[in-house]
Amino acid sequence: MKKVYINATFFTMDRENNIFENGMMVVQDKCISYIGQYSEDKLTDVDQVVDLHGKWVLPGLVNTHSHILMTLLRGVGDDMLLKPWLETKIWPLEKRFNTEIASISAQLGILEMVKTGTTTFSDMFNPNGIDSDEVMQTIGKTGIRGAFSHTIFSLGTEEEQKLNIMHAERFARNYKTAADDRLTTMVAPHSPYACTPEALLEGLRISKENNLMIHIHVSETDYEVSNIEKHYGVRPIEHLHRLGVFDQPTVIAHGVVLNDEEREILKQHDVRVAHNPISNLKLGSGIADIVSLLNAGIKVGIATDSVASNNNLDMFEEMRTAALLQKGIYKDATKLPAHATLALATRVGAQAIGMAHTGSLEINKKADFIAIYPYDKEHLQPISEAYSHLLYAARGNDVCDVFIDGKIIVKDGNCLTIDEEKVIAEANRLQSNLFR
Predict the structure, then answer these.
(1) In CATH, what is the architecture of 61-352?
(2) pLDDT at residue 125 above 80?
């Protein structure tokens, strides 16, 4: 199927930051075969011409760190610090999960993601009590692209820890590619504080043997850094470095508490950072110095974390917050300008999680794109300043259409791959049962 999309402004988010007003995009076999100015020559031998009626079109957003199975826990444990929040709220509730809860929670999270413009995500899930295969199949049916990763924990009995690693290895082996190559997985040791060195080394082994990236929470709080230093004599980054974790391609979630030496280690090993500004603020963890990471040449993506610590999956809100925070902490309005921030939420974010085949509108990249109709939205006026509005004014619910692999997933604000009414009803029923 060869489709041509016309009558739109295309924000490519490529390295040159090309923008094509009254542009044209040709999609064939799930990929972009042409992007540029309108050309009558491109209209020959096409199956369908799609008039976008002047919409703004940009790459689908890339959420580099999430926990979609925690979507039913939205609003649980507000106004708490990370350690007690995890230990007294989140982990105890996750022990009560079953496959039905996990599947509905995943669908609810993905529903929110795609309807607010996210087409690619990288996720960690707690496998306790669930059939991870069934959940992965459910995710595959939604049409989203991403990495869904089995978390490794050093919690529970020794036998439970062995089983956790065994199941993580099986999951890694089975889901290196899934859902017509839209889905993959990473190896996801939870963190240096929730994993023993032995568990971290097992994660490293699984990653190497299956040629998969590592996804891990690191240096999120001052308490974590001091606690790891107390136990192992070094800070978290050096601890992982000594174990050889960074010998594999790695994305660390957070990186709030880093020094210059640690940034140099990350740069040397091409370790990427998933920046979660709102979650870090809400949990009182601090503000990551993204400007210093970028100046050091480190790839950074934007992320929401879970809705239990955010409390939404709106990447427009997330990237705007990321930009404003850097301007504020530096007292310099030139820091993290619009073009750089939008790139972190698209092209650079995709690179950070090993999915450079998406994230920008370029020839041979996947046809993952979103559209906004700005003309009836007062907060997106004047339309002549569209680029500014995409960062500083737009909201997730401004997105009207979403395409992944060239297939329409959201049309006129309605998701075509998820039964919205059913999922919302089931989410409320299951959440009520969870707290009985």
Answers:
(1) Alpha-Beta Barrel (3.20)
(2) yes
